[in-house]
From TrEMBL:
Pfam families: Peptidase_M14, Propep_M14. It comes from Neolamprologus brichardi. PROSITE patterns: CARBOXYPEPT_ZN_1 (PS00132), CARBOXYPEPT_ZN_2 (PS00133), PEPTIDASE_M14 (PS52035). This is Carboxypeptidase B. The active site is at E377. The keyword Magnesium does not apply.
């Protein structure tokens, strides 16, 4: 009886894992208003997963639109698109195959690997070890728990000092499926510790400033991408009156909240929540930054994909008061990044550079008074999208380090 119960539980667990056999990722090129209308009508009639932009409402003439189309809708979607005359290209022919290829089967490394997509349990153990074995450089603080009760841990990196130092705050993993983001925060922490004393730029930074790193913001969602649905994006909170779970945490901050580029529909991938900071994860982060507002001089949030370096604003087309300086720093950072592998990033304020989106953490931090507020959208430009292979973790993190260090050096020289 116990054996039958065990196999029954295993079968139930396996049945709950979302598979993507036959799904395709298409890149569309709407060049007419009619094309935009076709895309929005398709989104209303079948379940499309928007990779870029994040919803049908954000689609405009002239932009590239990446969508995942479930296998059962492909014939109908292809027919409609071809009848519209819209240009399309298949970027990923079989999403499940791309999911399976993303993880390279090299066996389990004895030490924490910075070139693998680690699970939350691995990351949690790693954070404990890093703080224990580098106590002169790293301390950790739990800033609250997630909706499902997991601890949100911030690592404070810097040479211990008797006085309070100015700081930079960096987070990764707002959107659960953006795995390269989580990988970068781990890479940054290790690089900071291992190059301190040998890299003059990193040494100067950590002598004079601290860096707060939140390696995984949306922990519940990230766990779910490993156990149930690789394409999950939002948090995992329950929404009253709806069977749809989760909120888009990067629409949940008090920065033009839910006015543009966000949805009040709990089933939308850009659902803004019931109020600013209605998500406990958003409130935990905001409370920490508010508490340390006097010392935090820069806010950097790491996302993927599209190869962009953005700054405020996204909730309005108005330029930030510090626009010229923010643009100059972004261009300098993008140039530093490009110097290693030739990877090209586009820099600019969020709304005019890609699309308007209210409720973002970068806009919120800037309006709070954190002048140097930046969003990275890491590799690539759509060939793999959210399924960037592990073989690209190292080059992506190496080049991104150059950009982050460029920003940090500017902040260090221009404290306010």
């Amino acid at each position: 009886m116990k054996v039958l119960l065990f196999f029954g539980l295993v079968a139930f667990a396996l049945a709950d894992v979302t598979r993507f056999e036959g799904d395709k990722v298409l890149r569309l090129k709407p060049v007419l208003n009619e094309h935009v209308k076709v895309i929005r009508e398709l989104a209303n009639s079948v379940q499309l997963d928007f990779w870029a932009p994040e919803s049908a409402e954000q689609v405009t003439v002239g932009m590239s639109v990446d969508i995942r189309v479930p296998a059962q809708y492909l014939d109908m979607v292809f027919t409609v698109l071809q009848q519209s005359g819209m240009q399309l290209e298949v970027f990923i022919d079989d999403v499940q195959e791309a999911v399976d290829r993303q993880i390279e089967n090299k066996g389990s490394p004895r030490a924490h690997s910075y070139t693998k997509y680690n699970t939350w349990s691995d990351i949690e153990s790693w954070m404990n070890s890093m703080a224990t074995f580098n106590s002169d450089m790293i301390s950790k603080e739990v800033i609250g728990n997630t909706y499902e009760g997991r601890p949100m841990v911030v690592l404070k990196i810097g040479k211990k000092s008797g006085s309070t130092k100015p700081a930079i705050f960096m987070d990764c993993g707002f959107h659960a499926r953006e795995w390269i983001s989580h990988a970068f925060c781990q890479w940054f922490v290790n690089e900071a510790v291992t190059t301190y004393g040998s890299d003059s730029q990193m040494t100067s930074l950590l002598d004079k400033m601290d860096v707060f790193v939140l390696p995984v913001f949306n922990i519940d969602g990230y766990v779910f991408t490993h156990t149930n649905n690789r394409m999950w994006r939002k948090t995992r909170s329950r929404n009253a009156g709806s069977s749809c779970l989760g909120t888009d945490p990067n629409r949940n901050f008090n920065a033009g909240w839910c006015t543009i580029g966000a949805s009040t529909n709990p089933c939308s991938e850009t659902y803004c929540g019931t109020a600013p900071e209605s998500e406990i994860e958003s409130k935990n982060l905001a409370d920490f930054i508010r508490k340390n507002k006097s010392i935090i001089k820069a806010y950097i949030t790491i996302h993927s994909y599209s190869q962009l370096l953005l700054f405020p604003y996204s909730y309005t087309y108005e330029l930030a008061a510090d626009h010229d300086e923010l643009m100059a720093v972004a261009k300098g950072a993008s140039s530093a990044l490009r110097s290693l592998y030739g990877t090209v990033y586009t820099s600019g304020p969020g709304a005019p550079t890609i699309y308007p989106a209210a409720g973002g953490s970068d806009d919120w931090a800037y309006d709070l008074g954190v002048k140097y507020s930046y969003t990275f959208e890491l590799r690539d430009e759509g060939q793999y999208g959210f399924l960037l292979p592990e073989s690209q973790i190292k080059p992506t993190c190496e080049e991104t380090m150059l950009a982050v260090k460029y920003i940090a050096a500017h902040v260090q020289k221009n404290l306010y």
